[in-house]
Amino acid sequence: MANSSSFLRTYKYRLYPTRAQQQRLEQTLDCARNFYNMCLAERKWAWKLERRSVTKTEQLRQVKHYKRTFPQARDVHSHVLQVAVADLDKAFQAFFRRVKAGEKPGYPRFKGKGWYDSFGLKEYGNGFSIGDDSPRSSGKLLRARTSQRSTFCPEGPVRASK
Length: 162
Known about the structure:
By secondary structure, this protein is mostly helical.
């Protein structure tokens, strides 16, 4: 490239968690989905009842309160909840962009158990780590998809396939 562009490199890992790790992943996923849905409901009702827009910043401030209020959220890293708020905000930005362009807008939807299959992590080393220190197994995981065979766990040893 002629100009000095930078590239973002992505690594994909297949991990094999233990049963306890799988349960922890599912708990994290459920918590992120529930928080996403709660934030969507808040935005919907604030507009419907008060004609007031709820901002991303207002909802990010609620992460600590949510973790204190709901016992299942206490073990979930706050970055997971912050990314759920960011995902919802992106959905609303896309909605308003489509409204402005005159396209079919598609209001953001509530996510059911089968429709919310990933959770995000903000930065490597803060709340999770992958593999050992070898160059082949180090990398950054930005989005973790959960399933029986391909998952990510923020704690404990996990075998990675090559």
